[in-house]
Write a structure and sequence with these properties.
About 80% of the residues lie in helices and about 0% in strands. The longest helix is centred in the last third of the chain and has 22 residues. It has two helices and no strands. By secondary structure, the protein is mostly helical.
Amino acid sequence: MRDLYKRYTRAAADLRSHDTGCSACTANARGTEGARLFESFARLQDAYNNRKRT
């Protein structure tokens, strides 16, 4: 579970870092790279939260 947590928090940090420097990403829409990072973050967040419940 620690490995999953590390991957989840790293994905969140990568997304935040991208969002601060990307002019294509907004609160309502994401560019190609931002969409990929968000999808990765969301997938890992779901996996982490689901694992915590079991």
